[in-house]
Predict the structure.
Amino acid sequence: MLPAGIMLFNYSIFRIPVRTKETILLFLLCLIAIIQVTNSEMENRITLLRIWKFLLLFVLFLVSKTVIQKVKEIQVEAYLVCVGFLVLCAGAFIDIGIDLTTGKNIYLSQYGFLSLMILSAVSISHRNSKNEKELSLLTKNLEDRVKEGTTELEQKNLDLKTDLIFASQLQGHLLPKFSPKISGFQIQAIYLPMKQVGGDMDDWVELDSSKILLILADVAGHGVPAAFVSSMVKFQFRESAKIHSSPD
């Protein structure tokens, strides 16, 4: 099961997805391991061992491919795993060679596994440290962007308030400054919009000493759009008053 574990560890540390061919290879390795723990004849065990050694070549190829690819991307973790993997492979090949030629095993591969485990632990620590630095940098960038966005929002809000004050002053200039003087009447007007500007308006035009045209208007809605429409109504009223002397 160790080769299967090494391959899975290698894929996980470099964040490589396990595809169909890797899944089949892992299934065969696990199947051989399960059969080996059962009571089977020695000849069958030797056959399965040779199949296992043959499958190791595929494991070696896949792991080497991923390590070489990550080394080309200049990842420190890849260099560390590569060194441990090379030590393991050297020990495993020596063990297999001695086993095939003399029938003995000096178990050099176990030292290779130890080296791989130590270097893998170092690579994981390096990866975690790098992830923490990247997360810290992303957090700082996010805070800076939020700060910039808040400043921009405050500036836009200030600009909007300034524009509303200007619009309010402009609308104030559009309203009549004096009350009409008609014999027997006293007319006063006060303008209190819900917001800084609004759609309510009043205006008057003196036709003669005893007659005026008066308009009271309430444009639907609030704010700048309503105020804009009311200013157009005022202009139209003034133009109409030059021609017509009666509301009808």
Notes: The helical segments are 2-13, 20-36, 42-72, 76-102, 109-174, 223-241.
